[in-house]
Task: structure prediction
Amino acid sequence: MEDRDRQVADNGPLGSLALGGLLEQAVNNLWLGIILFDRRREVIYCNQRYMDMYGLAPDEVRPGTPVSNLIQHRLKLGLKIRGEADDYVRARTERTIVSEQAVQEFADGRIIAYTVHPLPDGGGMATHEDITEREELSARLRQRNMQFDIAINNMSHGLCFFDADRRLIVCNKDFIDMYGLPPERVGPGTPLSDIVDMRFAAGSVPAMSRDEYMKWRTGVVVSAEPVDSIVEMRNGRTFKIRHRPMPDLGWVATHEDITEQRRTELKIAHMAHHDALTDLANRALLNQRLEQAFTSNQMFAVHHIDLDKFKSVNDTLGHHAGDALLKGVSERLRRLVRPGDTIARMGGDEFVVLQTPIGEASEAATLAQRIIGQMSAPFEIDAQQTIAGASIGIAIAPADGATPEQLLRNADLALYRAKGDGRGMYRFFEPTMDEEVQGRRALELDLRKALASGEFELHYQPLVKSHSGEISGFEALIRWQHPQRGLIPPNSFIPLAEEIGLIVPIGEWVIRQACMTASRWPKHLHVAVNISAVQFRYGGLAEVIVGALAAAGLDASRLEIEITESVLLQDKEGTLATLHRLRELGIRIAMDDFGTGYSSLTYLQCFPFDKIKIDRSFVRDVATDAGSLNIVRAIAALASGLGMTATAEGVETREQLDRIAAEGCTEMQGYLFSRPLPAADIERRFLSPEAPALPDRFAAA
Ligand code: C2E
Ligand code: CA
Ligand code: CA
Result:
């Protein structure tokens, strides 16, 4: 034993084994731990690496050491085994040596693979290799693979990799599902063309032939450029495909189902350009279409449509009915235009039709006439027959405007004219309309200042009794003494004053002024004042009148107010209540311009008027036209039957006077007796002690 010890100490672990120094060096530097043992399972040789691996001193592995010691040693180092240590050691040392490969794990995490090779003499050689790092690496790889699998199958996009031969490397489940592919037929190596065939079978392809599709797809592949495409499938889905080439000439593509997103986007885009109620184009879209129309260099027309009766439907039947009418109108408009035309709702009851292109202006007139026709046919709303009625202003491009704004504005001016001309008609834009609007605007500014500047005055026109020629009173008629334009007649500014509400303070001034003037007249003379419908609607009219009478100290019985039937068109109940109140105070009420409205007779029934003023248009023709004479006769008879005064307006000739007196009109007014005159002239001519009574010749025979 002592010899052996020495030998080991002298010759290194190879002991008596006669290995050359170089070889021994090589074996010791091997990455593998090597151990040789004989058939008695005693160590013959082990290299340095083996000792290093297991932390063994040369002494512990010297030749003759039982292998079981080394196994025990490994167990001490923390070798993980199944079962008992003794059993393990016995099993390893008792059975015959066979070829074997195994992996041993240690408590410190080391993993060592060993191989046993039987040797011819019954012994064996074992190699030990520390594979800890390699194992860790492959464990990491395995994990990577798993993570990759999880990732690609949970990315909510379809994903596929193809190689340079256009064969599938890998794809995920989403890809298979999105395109409805048979999963068992899609695996690594499947050619692109097979997948395309499967897609054609499933219908998950765009509306193209197979050839067209392959041509497009191959084009993308060959280009070797990143390409993003949005593809609409035959089955109604929309996919976004991001194709990315890879350095090896293969590619990776992600497939995203953007169907819902697309629908939402389209819906939002639609909403941004359409009116919610009627689904017609809105202003924004109309503007786009107008811009387009201008770039086409063709003639086109813009129709600005306004519904005549919408407001009354909305007011009387409610918003719900108003909405229904707007929808009905939209439907009819849709049926009237051509596919390339645009109908827009501009808000409220205003619509614009862009008719493009047209060959000549008369085509616009034809369409406008059709629209008006359709709008005057009844709509059934809430089981009621309703008419929308339409007025239309037309502007033709490029003549009437070079920009959408200009064209729309000019169509609007034409619309204004159409409405002013009595509604239910169309008007083409004319350049003078612009000037008129400017003029109107200037007039409006002046009118707002006129009252404060004391530019108004009242003229008075006598009312004459037919049988005696005596004056019964005077009608107050307003005049505007404009500082630059001179005298402006009421018909030129009263409608404007009514429109902008100024008639209320102006009318109040008229009432006060007229009462004040009349208070200086002899007590048997009355004063007639014209009251506009707007004054009734505004409220407080009775208070204003009572206040004016009180301020002037004028008896209510000396005031007469003249109203036209338009006063009773709106808020009939409220207006009638005011009229009754005034009448109870002793004020007389006259129906002015009788015969010019639609329902004069109806209104006569609903209020006990004191007087009917027969419109000048009948008086004018009374000598020449039997129809007018008959009307005057009928009205006079009606008035007398109802106990009212019948007054003929606008009597200018002796002949008219005679005819009218013969028909029973009790009172007359007209240039034949006097033009309207300033208060001072009236006093001088008719009321001073020296003034002659109206000549007897004016009394009816
Ligand atoms: P109206 O109430 O029918 O007044 C009668 C109009 O006929 C007056 O016109 C008068 O000058 C005119 N006239 C009287 N006799 C003759 C005649 O023989 N021949 C002709 N051709 N005309 C005659 P004017 O003063 O221009 O007033 C026009 C309208 O303006 C009035 O018609 C009335 O509706 C309105 N108006 C006048 N003053 C006022 C007012 O203070 N307030 C309101 N709201 N309206 C007024
Ligand atoms: Ca009048
Ligand atoms: Ca009148």
Observations:
- The domain at 2-135 is CATH 3.30.450.20 (Beta-Lactamase).
- Residues 461, 477-478, 489-491, 494, 507, 510, 530-532, 562, 592-593, 616, 649-652, 669-671, 676 surround C2E (ligand 1) (CB under 6 Å).
- The longest helix spans residues 132-153.
- The chain has 26 helices and 27 strands.
